[in-house]
Design a protein that fits this description.
This protein is an all-beta fold and about 120 residues long. It is about 0% helix and about 55% strand. The strands form two sheets. Strands 2, 4, 5, 6, 9, 10 and 11 form a seven-stranded mixed β-sheet that branches. The chain has a four-stranded antiparallel β-sheet with strand order 1-3-8-7, with no helix packed on it. It is globular.
Length: about 120
Amino acid sequence: VQLQAFGGGLVQPGGSLRLSCAASGSIFSIDVMGWYRQAPGKQREMVAHITSRGSTNYADSVKGRFTISRDNAKNTVYLQMNSLKPEDTAVYYCNAYIGTRPRLYWGQGTQVTVSS
């Protein structure tokens, strides 16, 4: 099983980016999927997660600006990021609990840089 993230890049403050993360391999079921981020010199922090039924949870710092969603048919989770701020600059990682006895998998990071 692999998770692969896409969509990072450089964007100006106030701009938008959409991250995607697709799970591949021998997958029977996926429970919670989520996004974390790690800025230089800081600990990794939860950004948002979504259950298989679509219930969501967000970090206070991104509420109202970021939206997490998923396409269960494609085993993919998305993170729509609007009104980006310089403090959103970080490496973003996706994760997912996969399998009948859920095991946590992480994707590789994708860099998001918010700068003018």
